[in-house]
Amino acid sequence: MTSTPPHLARLAEHLHLITAIQRGIEKEGLRTDQNGNLAMTPHPRALGSTLTNPYITTDYSEALLELITRPHHSVTDVLAELSDIHRYTAQRLDGEIIWNQSMPAHLPPEADIPIAWYGTSNSGMLRHVYRRGLAERYGKAMQCIAGVHYNFSMPDDLWQVLETPGDTTQDRRSKGYLGLIRNFIRYAWLIMYLFGASPAVSRSFLPENGHGLQLLDDDTLYLPHATSLRMSDLGYSNKAQSDLQLCYNDIETFVERMHRAVTTPWPAYEAIGTHRDGQWIQLNTNVLQIENEYYSSIRPKRTTQRGERPATALATRGVEYVEIRCLDIDPYSPAGLSGQTARFIDTFLLFCTVDPSPFFSQNGFCQDSQHNFGLVCREGRQPGLMLARQGQSVSLQDWGIELLERMQPYAQLLDQTEGSQSHAHALQVQIDKLRDVELTPSASLLRDLRESGLSLHDFTLAKSQAHHQHWLNQALPPSLERQMDEAAKHSLTEQQRLEASDAESFDEYVAQFHAALALPPAA
C-alpha cells in the first residue's frame, strides 16, 4: 500500500465536509404490458404532468419513465426515496410494469414508438420537438434504451481544503469538478467492468446484419465477453457526436466547444430540415440541437433558471455538480441500483475528486480513455484483456486491483463518517469481481440465461414482474402518499397554467430559446 496522499490527509481532518456530500438519482425504466411489450398508452394521469412533476417524468419515449429523487446526504436516504417513488408509481400503473433492464423490451414498428408528450405549452412543445429531432437523428428504438444517472456534489469548502487553485469559490469549484471528471474518464472502464449489465439484447432491437453480435437463442443476441452493449458503439451514438471532442481541462474551453456544437450546422441534419408538412421535426440542423443531446459517461452540470441554456449557466455560474450517466440498470435490484453499488460509486467519485488529475493532452481529449471504455463495454470479460495506459499495455485485472487498493482509504473515510463498514465491504466485493470475472453482473446475467433456458426478454419479464409485485406488497405511509398525490395534482394544475400563460407563438419561443445562448468567454 502507498502512503496516504496529502490532500486525503487534509480531508480526514475535516470529516464534516464528507457528511455534506450530496447525491441524487434519476432512474429510467420502460412501461410495458404484462407480456413485456412496450406500453402504447399515454403517461398515466395519476402520476401527474411529465412537464412539471418533480418526482416522475419521462425521458425520450412516452413509455420511458424517469423517477427522480431530491439530493440527499446519505446513500440510505437517497435509495429510500427512490424506493418510495417506485412504490407510488407501481401502484398507479394499472396493469403495466416497469422494465428493469437497460436494453429495451419488445418494441413495435419504429413508426409506432410514441415520442414523449409534455402538453401544448411552448416549454412542453420544446421538449417534444427536441425528441422528434432525436428520432430523426438516432431512430426511435434508441430512445427506449434506459439507464441510471447518479448526481454528485461536494460542499464548496472542500475545494479550499484540497487546495484547488482559483481566485474565487466558483473558479475553484469548476476546476475541482473538472479534475474529478478527467479522472472519471480515465477510469470509467472500471465502472463498465464492475457494473455493466447489458451484455445481450433482444433480436428485434437490431437489424439482421451488420451488428457483429452472436445468437444466444432464437430471440437473444449477445457478445460473449461484453459488459454493456448499451454503452458500446451499438448504443446511443452517431457520426456527428463521434467527431465532437469536448475539452475537460478548463470550463472556458468546454463551454466554447459546446457552444460550437449547438451552433454549427451538420450536413445530414440540414438535409432533414426543421419542418415537414408544416410541423417542427427538430429544433435546428446543428451538430447538437441543445446541450443535453451530447451523450457522454459524465457531465458537468449547473441548475438552470427558467429559459436559461445549460451552456450559458455553466459559463456564468460555473459547475455545480456532476452527473454520472454510464450506469446500467441492475436487473437484480428492484430499484435498478443497489446500496452496495451506490456506496462504491461514492468511494470512486471521492477518489476521483482527491487524486491528482493532470490535464489531458491531445487538445483536451484522451484517446486512450475512449479506447479503453469502448473495449471494456464489448470485451471486458475476455481473459487477459489488455488496456492502454500512458503508451503502455496493462492488464485490466492488474490495473483494476491497483485502483481499488488505492481507493481503500477513501472507503474508510466514508465509513468513518457513518460509523459503519459498508463502503469497505462494497469495495471488497468489487475486488472479488476483478479476481473472478464470473461474479460480474454481465457474467451472472448470461449464466442465468443459459441455465434457465429463457431468452433475455422472458428472463427480464419475469424479473420485472417480481420487482413490480415487490413494490405492490409495500404500502406507502399515508402521509407520504398524500404528499406525492398532492405533487401530482399540483403538477397538472401547473401545466395548465403554463399552457394558458404563453404570450408568444412556438416559432417565436424557439427563436428566443436559441437567442438565449450566450457567447462563451474567451478560453
Describe the structure.
It is a single chain. The longest helix is centred in the middle third of the chain and has 27 residues, at 169-195. The protein has one domain (6-515): Creatine Kinase, Chain A, domain 2 (2-Layer Sandwich). 45% of the residues lie in helices and 12% in strands. It is built from 18 helices and 14 strands. Strand 9 and strand 10 (279-280) form a beta hairpin. By secondary structure, it is of the alpha+beta class. Strands 1, 2, 3, 4, 5, 11 and 12 form a 7-stranded antiparallel sheet that branches. Strands 6-8-7 form a 3-stranded antiparallel sheet, with no helix packed on it. A two-stranded antiparallel ribbon has the order 9-10. GO terms for molecular function: glutamate-cysteine ligase activity.
Strand residue content: 5-15%
DSSP, total strands: 14
Radius of gyration: 22 Å
- The CATH level-2 architecture is identified as 2-Layer Sandwich
Distance, first to last CA: 40 Å
CATH topology: Creatine Kinase, Chain A, domain 2
Largest sheet: 7 strands, antiparallel
The 3D shape can be described as globular
At the first level of CATH, what is the class?
Answer: Alpha Beta
Tell me the structural class.
alpha+beta
Helix content, binned percent: 40-55%
Outline the low-pLDDT stretches.
none
Number of helices: 18
GO molecular function, one term: glutamate-cysteine ligase activity
Keywords: ATP-binding, Glutathione biosynthesis, Ligase, Nucleotide-binding
Domain Glutamate--cysteine ligase: 13-372
Pfam family, one: Glu_cys_ligase
